[in-house]
Amino acid sequence: MSHFHATITITVAVALSTSSPSPAADVDFHRDVRPILVKHCVACHGPRSHKAGLRLDAATLIHKGGESGRAVVAKQPAQSLLLTRLTTNDPALRMPAEAKPLSKNDISVIRNWIVGGAVIPTNETIPASPEDHWAWKTPGRSQRLTNGDNPIDVYFDAEHRKQSITPRPAARPEHLLRRVSLDLVGLPPTRKQLHDFLTNPADPTYAKNVDRLLKSPHHGERWGRHWMDIWRYTDWFGLGKEVRYSQKSIWRWRDWIVESLNSDLGYDRMVVDMLAADEIAPTDLDRLRATGFLTRGFNLFNRNYWLDDVVEHTAKAFMGLTLNCCRCHDHKFDPLSQ
Fold first, then answer.
1. Cis ω on the peptide bond leading into residue 151 (within 30° of 0)?
2. How does pLDDT run across 181-200, given as a tens digit for each residue?
3. Which of 8, 60, 242, 316 is least buried, going by the fewest C-beta atoms within 10 A?
4. How many other C-beta atoms are found inside a 10 Å radius of the C-beta of residue 163?
5. What is the CB neighbour count within 10 angstroms for residue 116?
6. 314: closest CA among 305, 323, 302?
7. How does pLDDT run across 30-53, given as a tens digit for each residue?
8. What is the DSSP string of 257-275?
């Protein structure tokens, strides 16, 4: 080799050795490491389930470790529990449990991240656990404020001041009566009712009008519609003798809903009767009407579809949960497993 070519070769080699970063320096936790952990580990060590107190969905939490201590030691792969559990030859200790070992490439990525210092990304956001959502926490009792015409107005007034909002003046008496009439029975007040109220629009008179509206049979008809929307009431039962998602006598359930609201039957009693009146009171024909909630999803051709439908819509109506997602996989948002 000529002196010139040897010089060029040495120069290029030195340049590459000094300018090219090591594989460990190239590894980014979010880009390279986290997708591997999410695919293979987070189902057991993530926001939803953190076995042994260990979460692997954030670099900060990996450094924190779990019941066995820190999961990684920066620049010391041999001392990092995460890597040793992924690479051990003991099937009883190797992770992920009851699954194929990680590929050599995935192991190499995790090892290089640790060798490079197991760097925690700047401004890393730790995913919240579904159990931390406000819907799963018992609400605390707020301190009752007594000043003001209505206790709830005190809270509104405080927020108005914070947002620099000037509230509208109090509604006129005729507007109040019209609003409460439409809300409770779905009908505006008659001319006589309005005249009688305006003659003496004091609070006791308003309260008497509210009581009158609540005792009206139209109240159950008005508010029964809202409940029937949630409980999926429908009169349609198919074509001819073909029955789909309803029953020919489903109207009895509709009447039971209206009558229950008008008789002020407790909500808890309504729910129990809709789900189990045939077990609790099998000879009480009046209460049996409530089970229209169950027969509404009747499927003539597949009983399993019917049962799945009952579970899905019972959870939606009474729990606010979409349990149907769990038929195929762990829920993506709620803390519910398959």
1. no
2. 999 999 999 999 999 999 98
3. 242
4. 7
5. 19
6. 323
7. 899 999 998 898 888 888 788 898
8. HHHHHHTT--HHHHHHHHH
Q: Which letter does DSSP use for residue 141 in this model?
A: P
Give the max Cα distance, the chain.
Answer: 116
Q: In which element (H, E) is residue 51 found? A: none
Rg (CA), the chain: 33
Contacts of 27 (CB under 8 A, 6+ apart): 33, 109, 112, 113, 116
- CA-angle at 66, arms to 46 and 84, nearest 5°: 90
- Provide the token pair at 184: 């409770």
| pTM given for the model | 0.65
Q: What is the mean pLDDT of the chain?
A: 84
**Number of other residues whose CB lies within 10 A of the CB of residue 118:** 24
Q: Where are the domains of the chain?
A: 21-123, 173-215, 223-298
Residue 289, Cβ neighbours under 10 Å: how many?
A: 22
203's tokens: 């609070």
- Tens-place pLDDT, residues 205-248: 899 999 999 999 999 999 999 999 999 888 766 666 666 667 77
**Phi, psi of 220, deg, nearest 5:** -65, -35
Of 106, 104, 114, 112, give the one whose Cα is nearest residue 81: 114
Helical H runs in the chain? 3-19, 23-26, 34-40, 59-64, 81-87, 104-115, 151-162, 173-185, 191-199, 203-215, 217-231, 251-262, 267-280, 285-288, 292-295, 303-318
Residue 103 in contact with residue 65, Cβ under 8 Å?
no
233 contact partners, CB below 8 Å, separation of at least 6: 250, 253, 254, 257, 292, 296
